[in-house]
Amino acid sequence: MGIGTYVVVWLISLFMVLPFGVKPQTDPVPGSPEGAPEKPRLGRTALITTALAAVIWLIIWIVVTRGVVDLRGTS
């Protein structure tokens, strides 16, 4: 469950981080969309996304293990 949660949090974080610092091309290359980023910086985006997802996942883990939210159910 922990790995699945991390993957979901990572993907959501990716879509939150993607638009930051992106500037459209000043002189679009023929055949590319006008809104395509000039420098996508995917490596930097992946690192920021990984760090953000780790922090969010850690908060979720603490909340679940401390019993603030019971995901296992009491029967």
Task: Please explain how this structure is put together.
With 75 residues, the chain is mostly helical. It has a domain at 1-21 and 41-69. 53% of the residues lie in helices and 0% in strands. The protein contains two helices and no strands. It has helices at 2-17, 42-65. Helix 1 crosses helix 2.
Features:
75 residues, mainly alpha, 2 helices, 53% helix
List the helices and strands and how they pair.
Blueprint: H1 2-17, H2 42-65
Rg value: 18 Å
Which parts are unreliable, with pLDDT below 50 for 5 consecutive residues or more?
A: none
Shape annotation: rod-shaped
Q: How many β strands by DSSP?
A: 0
User: From the helix content, strand content and strand pairing, which structural class follows?
Assistant: mainly alpha
Largest sheet descriptor: none
N-to-C series of helices and strands = HH
Helix content: 40-55%
| Ends distance | 20 Å
What's the pLDDT, averaged over the residues? 89
Quote the beta fraction. Answer: under 5%
How many helical elements?
A: 2
Short description:
The protein is mainly α.
